[in-house]
């Protein structure tokens, strides 16, 4: 099954299985979380499942991922995250000690994000029926009055910002899982995006849209956002922050860092006149010091993301089909 | 007395055919008329029977050099007894057929005018006539008439108009006819688009700039070109730097055959191609420098014993080169990996950082057409890049297939379509990896469909899901509601050569190239397929090996070598490649190979060439496609065959050629200090033996050679000779390139078979 890479097949799967009429879900827009009315207030809801091998990696573990990931999905709709639930599927034989460490890590992460783990569930399945440990977390948050963060609000001319250098998480996990010793060890970037988003709003930025760059990396996140927003995006290759350890590893691996996963990075679409203010706001926080302006929204076909390369040409950053198979003859 | 209606199809428009017919009829005192139709030319001719048949013979024997008569239909008609022979207006009612001519190099008569001080067109850079000049680059629609070309904006002056109407004139109905009074003109622009000079002064200033070491962007016939002084190393280096093109050879335009001879060996057949109406770049063997002048800087084609040479093919180029009096580098006016710029605005925008001056004109270029590239092969000229002078000349098919469109590969893109009994393959479009490239592909499709008024019943493309051409195919099929027919890469390679030679199979095809997606999801490239129509069977391939880093391995032959060694020796592989990797690189790459991480399996012959190039010390890294394989071919030189390395074909369905004994023997040679040239020759010899072994096993009389590896002349020549000596009939690419440039043609051929099978099944349901 090549549907998990965050690429074209993943999108197809979602469209074909979940969004065919009548939609299995009440919301028909693909967004990280759903925003629904609750009395006069707006509630953001989201759910996500976490599977990662190995469960502990430099810079994080599956527990942190399960908290940050769901928190970040809430934050991407402009919400302040409030509550989380957690469901565990344990494979028989998982060490109790390991589970304790994961849960402790989740508590710590939840405290850091200011959310409360309020309910949970645990199931144990037979050996071989699950890969050690699966975690599902759901989250609820409150969208403050006046915030409107949605792909629909993206406009040609908007500046595109990224909150930090890309590709660390994917490389960190890969190096541990595959036993690859890179010259400079790479740490996962897994972290909560709450402070960065709050920093943008405190600075008075009229944030149009946000998306965390998880599976499929920066390129895939932008593809989805551009498609949902009905716009094109033009990036400058020289502006996209990639640290040297990651770019070195990517060259060896034959990977494009723009397609490598992050777990603590987001792209923000903001009005051009506010770009510098927004950038300063991001850089003012330790998690956003490497924030950069990487491109802009342009008129053009919905979902087209292109990159002006170092050589001055333009490359299409499309959603690749599953495996990246060499195209060069 | 008799009257005949003669319909002629082929390339008969825009090549001076009607004036020729008129002259031939008038000379024989025959009456009647000739007229262009969208499907060719129709002639009605009347007179005494012997003179009419003499006229018919003249049609075949004396037609203008650029005309190509593909089909002549003759029918008897009742007498009409009119007076004289006339040329009638075009008749647009018949359905369009591809008889669009290619652009033609300036003819001797026009050249003469351009240099003779008394001629009206003295030093006029846009001089042309019915036998020469722009065609494909200026045609908007069919039939070919001035009103449907990019010359329509220029109103003819009375003198030009008189020439255009005079049946005895060389310019009778020469659609792009022009002169200094009424035609296009030159301007020299600075990098900001400011006009510095006009007319002849523009030309002189431009040449001055080039001779002073500058880079000139020239709006040529089919797009912009970048020119620098080829004799000055610093100028060539500057161009390399600005274009960010490290080592890939540049072509050189020479002012004369004599200057070509000073720098290169030139056989008479090569000279004939250089001076033909197509006037392509011809790859010639460089002479050893004997101190003769002019000489060409090494940086033009570093480390390469061959040089791409061409002669001026328009009066503009002729005048430039006459003023420069020396060879000039003449390379496509684009950014690396992007399509050619065609309009001044676009060139200013994209080439501002490259060129210092822009010499432009106001005759719009309707489609980008690059210079073609030809190499003299064992069976005559072998077209490596098919563009100016060749495209869009049609290929006759044996039967009329359905209307189909084929979209080709990912690099060296071309589009092909069927129109009646013919296949038309577009000019070379270049790399489709950039947005500009993908857009050009789409524009070219629209252009061809509009010109030929064809609505495809199906679209063919490659199997690879991420080729720009496949993506376009999916979109088009959805838009038009027609089926998408995906054709395996190497099947298409072989089918292209079969189409060129009118073969329907079964044949044994050796498709040896870089890589294409196979039906099993791995990267094929060292394939032997038995092909018959819509079907193929894989009968042999190279033993699969892993490529650490996938596409990245294509730029680093050392990775291909590591893949082979790892398959042989596991983690100990690097002992044979000590200098090629740092310890850290080796660790990571071996771990990737060991775990199969980002390390797809391949059976690519191109990568086997890479591995051998790396292991024999010829090339560890490359900066352009095919560089290592070229270096290995050059290392092998022309010397006679030697003892091959063992490359046994292991039994199986399909059989696998095991490179392990080859690599072991090569490492043995290397340990004993054998020179790279010997290892390269032995490697080539092993492939010749392999080809023979595969052919014997397949037992089919016809063998087709296809794929990028057969740009290697030593390989092509030796395999062909060996197979012929064993009684096989061997078919090789000639008019259409061995590389991915002919994938569209192959896809078209396979799709035609498949489409008809599907139609037959639906007509006669079982
Ligand atoms: Fe190929
Ligand atoms: Mg998520
Ligand atoms: Zn002429
Ligand atoms: Zn005139």
TrEMBL record, chain B:
What's one Pfam family here?
Answer: Acylphosphatase
Gene3D superfamilies the record matches: 3.30.110.120, 3.30.420.360, 3.30.420.40, 3.90.870.50
Q: Which residues form the Acylphosphatase-like domain?
A: 3-89
Question: What PROSITE patterns would the database entry show?
Answer: ACYLPHOSPHATASE_1 (PS00150), ACYLPHOSPHATASE_3 (PS51160), YRDC (PS51163)
List, for all copies, the residue spans of the domain called YrdC-like.
200-389
Active-site residues from the entry:
18, 36
Q: Which GO terms describe its molecular function?
A: acylphosphatase activity; carboxyl- or carbamoyltransferase activity; double-stranded RNA binding; ligase activity; zinc ion binding
Q: In which pathway does it act?
A: Protein modification; [NiFe] hydrogenase maturation
Q: Which UniProt keywords apply?
A: Hydrolase, Ligase, Metal-binding, Zinc, Zinc-finger
Its recorded reaction(s) are:
an acyl phosphate + H2O = a carboxylate + phosphate + H(+); C-terminal L-cysteinyl-[HypE protein] + carbamoyl phosphate + ATP + H2O = C-terminal S-carboxamide-L-cysteinyl-[HypE protein] + AMP + phosphate + diphosphate + H(+)
Q: Is Zinc-finger set as a keyword in this record? A: yes
EC number of this enzyme: 6.2.-.-
Family to which the UniProt record says this protein belongs: Belongs to the carbamoyltransferase HypF family.
Database matches in NCBIfam families = hypF (TIGR00143)
What name is this protein filed under?
Carbamoyltransferase
Q: Which organism is it from?
A: Hyalangium minutum
